[in-house]
Amino acid sequence: MSESPLSAPHDPRLTIAHVTHEAVEHLGGIGTVLQGMISSPVYQEQVGRTILVGPTNAHWGSSPEGRLGADGKVLYSSADHVDTVDLGHRFHPIEWAFDVDIIYGTRQFNNKQEGRVGEGEILLIDVHRMNPARLAVFKHRLWQAFGIDSTQYENSWDFEEYMRLAEPAYFGLMALLRPEELPAVLISHEFMGMPTALQAILEGRKHFRTIFHAHECGTARRLVEDHPGHDTMFYNILEQAMSKGMFVEDVFGSLEKIPRHALISKAELCDGVVAVGDKTKDELHFLSRTFKEKSVELVYNGVPAMAVSMAEKLGARKMLQEYSHALLGWTPDVLMTHVTRPVISKGLWRDLKVCHELDGLLEGEKRTAVLYILTSGGGTRREEDVMNMERAYGWPRQHHVGYPDLIGPEVDIYRDVENFNQHHKRVQVVLVNQFGWSRQRIGMRLPAAMTIKEFRLATDVEFGMAVYEPFGISPLEPLGSGAVCVITNVCGCKGFVDHVAGGSGKAEPNVLEADFTRLDGKYSIEQLRNMTRTERDRIESVVSVDLAKKLLKALPKTDGEREEMIRAGQALVARMGWDQVLAESFVPLLQRVIAAPAEGGAR
Question: Which stretch of DSSP H or E encloses residue 183?
Fold first, then answer.
């Protein structure tokens, strides 16, 4: 029998439970954050026990070994009749009461970029059956205490799944924790953990201190993405409205039909609130008058730093230039990349607008450039499909609609790319609709030794001109290798860069800011609400002209200039790691939350 955590000697350090949809699968930004945080020595010095809590689909069937991923070990699973740590007597009553399956085990968090490892426990709950009577009582309690009308959102599985998770997750944690480990800290990562946090508040806050970790503000994201004016509209409205004492529903009307808004608007009830960026903090304060009075702590995301030599940089550039020659028939002088997801918030059309302006500027300098957009709306293509597409029609330079090639949002992106390439000579764009960067993933024309690491090292420019980007780790990943990172003023990482650089603008030329919220005249709130795509396009075009000029000036032309860019980039990222973030802001917040007296139940 394996050792149960309940039989281990008491650890005086904190116990933290993270409620997240990325407890096992690394699906996006939250998984990156958890990996960086849990593998940090600063975190490990303060936290003795980490438990990740989330939903699972045990009823779909899987081998017990695979339920917690490649780095996980299952110790208990009612779905598989596994119990190597004698936890059945604690978990069975919960499973019977709520009609759920529980899976529990451990997992390693391997931060390969920085050579670090962290460990955590995993508590997964299959809530697909769920006792309807108990769920109805819980929802009724939330209505009585917090005014959340769950009947409006029961057709939204995003909402329903985490409502079902709340009570069995709470009691599952109580089954795992010893009295001396209480109070523990329960962190709701985004809206997903809010029902569990509200359950902890209903129970009187004695056993858990709650923190809402805002990796975004879902209300703001919805308003930005769905409006043709995007960030140009929203952040100007936010600034004007807040100056007049107005809040989001005063401007946009009732948002009660949005499930995520219903949950995150209650985050001000938590003992602490964390925002990953300055704009996210503003967005939370914009939610309501009561939220405006809530202290929101800025805890930026850590940016991975890797040592880069000039020889590595030049070697990587040579490989990407060789591959570019194989695709284009000529060798570009400037290498540009954008590693992202194919969603509207990433503002990919802005890349093309800046490249349009660069095309004319590079003509005067007799230089050329290529932009690689690395994104996928169809998962990872199989090696045999990659090889067939490469041989048949020259993928990824050329594409065909239909899987294994273009699907979903990739189709429209390629149409824009194809139209751009037909009308420009000095700059060409290549859409690589694939995850990864190796011969198996990209094709035989790629240099044999090239990996995603060299792809990131090679670039001269990384675009990240998002319309909504709470933080944005990816746009800063090549910073330490001397790339010019182009972000917008609404990206959360912009505030972090300013913070470590000692003030706005001091990070140039390594980081360039594109301000697409810069209006070309005076707009009232009503005019902003009615902003059209044409108006926003006009503003973007003006900004793109200025940005292209700044970018051309920032681009290194000699190896000496490249080396200086590497030195400056390394100096910035050296102050942006998880250790610094945790020590400066997150650990002090944990200490304050634990030290504060419990405030009682729902308020």
Answer: none
Residue with tokens 């997801």: 341
Tell which CATH architecture fits domain 12-301+582-595.
Answer: 3-Layer(aba) Sandwich (3.40)
The answer to whether 91 touches 115, Cβ cutoff 8 Å, is no
* DSSP track, 415-456: HHHHHHHHT-SSEEEEEE-SSS-SHHHH-TTS-TT--HHHHH
* Torsion region of 205: left, alpha or beta (phi above 0 gives left; psi -120 to 50 gives alpha): left
Q: What is the C-alpha separation between 61 and 83, in angstroms, rounded?
A: 18
Q: Both ends of the chain: CA-CA distance in Å?
A: 45
Instruction: Give, in order, the Cα–Cα distances in Å from 60 to each of 79, 105, 163, 192.
Output: 10, 19, 20, 22
How many Cβ atoms sit within 10 Å of the Cβ of residue 254? 8
Q: Compute CA 566 distance to the chain's CA centroid, rounded to the nearest angstrom.
A: 26
Q: How far apart are CA 310 and CA 381, in angstroms?
A: 33
Could you tell me which residues come within 8 angstroms of residue 503 by beta carbon, excluding any fewer than 6 positions away? none
Cβ-contact 365, 333 below 8 angstroms? no
* Helix (H/G/I), strand (E/B), else coil: 491: coil
Q: CATH for 310-574?
A: 3.40.50.2000
pTM of the model: 0.93
Walking along the chain (603 residues) 10 residues at a time, the average pLDDT comes out as: 63 92 78 92 96 86 76 91 95 97 92 83 95 96 96 93 97 96 96 97 91 97 97 98 97 95 96 96 97 96 88 97 98 97 96 98 95 95 97 98 97 98 98 96 97 96 97 92 97 94 83 96 96 97 97 95 95 94 95 79 48
Q: Are strands 296-298 and 334-339 parallel, antiparallel or unpaired?
A: unpaired
Measured CA distances, 158 to 11, 37, 162, 201, 410 (Å): 36, 25, 7, 21, 25
For residue 223, give the H/E element and its range. helix 218-226
Same fold, 12-301+582-595 and 310-574: yes
Go through 92-121 and write b for each residue having 16 or more CB atoms within 10 A of its CB, e for each that does not: eebbeebbbbbbbbbbebebeebebebebb
CA dist., res. 339 & res. 354, Å (int)? 17
Strand-by-strand arrangement of the 47-55 sheet: 82-83, 72-77, 101-111, 116-126, 47-55, 14-19, 184-189, 208-214, 272-275, 296-298
3-class SS of residue 304: coil
Which residues are bridge partners to 211 per DSSP? 187, 272
Can you tell me the distance from the alpha carbon of 577 to that of 41, in angstroms, rounded to the nearest whole number? 12
Contact by Cβ (8 Å): 321, 370: no
Q: In the chain, what are the domain boundaries?
A: 12-301+582-595, 310-574
Q: For residues 354 and 540, give the distance between their C-alpha atoms in angstroms, rounded to a whole number.
A: 9
> Buried (b) or exposed (e) across 170-194, using 16+ Cβ within 10 A?
bbbbbbbbeeebebbbbbbbbbbbb
Residue 288 tokens, joined: 């309501």
**Cβ contacts of residue 247 below 8 Å, gap of 6+?**
241, 286, 287, 288, 289, 292
